[in-house]
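Hi everyone, sorry if this is the wrong subforum. Our group has a chain we'd like a structural model of before ordering constructs, and none of us has done structure prediction before. Sequence below.
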Amino acid sequence: MHSTPNANPSAAAYAPANANTRGDALRISGLTKTLGGHRALNGVNLRVGAGEVYGLLGPNGAGKTTLMKIISGLLRADGGQVELLGRPFDRSSLRSVGSLVEGPGLWPRLNAEEHLRLHARLRGVPEETGPELLRTVGMEEVSRRRVSAFSLGMRWRLGIAIALLARPRLLVLDEPTNGLDPVGMRDMRELLRRLAGEGVTVFVSSHQLDQVSRICDRVGVIAEGSTRYEGALDGLALDGDLEEGFFALLSRTSAVVR
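Answer:
Right subforum, don't worry. Here is the predicted structure as tokens:
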């Protein structure tokens, strides 16, 4: 069961106040991280402009999730630098970041409204924010249904609503169209574009190159822990085909798709 998000940009209510869409929202320089003896990140460099939808691409094991966890404050880098909104990243930076990495952590016996109400209390956000956010992500019709009855796509929508609670200036999403049917994918694309239009910088990872081509302003490709490409979609595509260009890039850089 899907409910289409409002055509009106209700997402504006959760965009950052006085958002500045010029300059960089996120700069990553020489980032390194070793996990379990494996070099997960090996000098990653990325630049994400304020107010854009930026796509992070790469094969499994490339380091995408590790990078997103560092930006979300779930891991610490071993070396390199992360700048958020022009300032070195520290714990206080997390007030400006909303994230959903490796799926939403939800309680099966609670419904969507109860999740939003609980997280609002934890973050000191007005509880009235919850119902409007559920409309924003197209879940108002199932707001009182227990999460145990949700599809995977519905769980992701609720997770994104929770990530938007504190009006973040940077929204970090790992596979935001995961589990959605074609209608849900379209609705999610429209939602993320509206958020970007209101000044929220959206940083997404995805394996779905078709979805990336429909939503992202620019992309970065990492493989084997290193940056292999950053720039416009046209610059990555081969003869107009993003998928062919992506695989050609990995082949040229000797990356192994696992």
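For your construct planning: The first strand starts at residue 24 and ends at 35. The longest helix spans residues 182-197.
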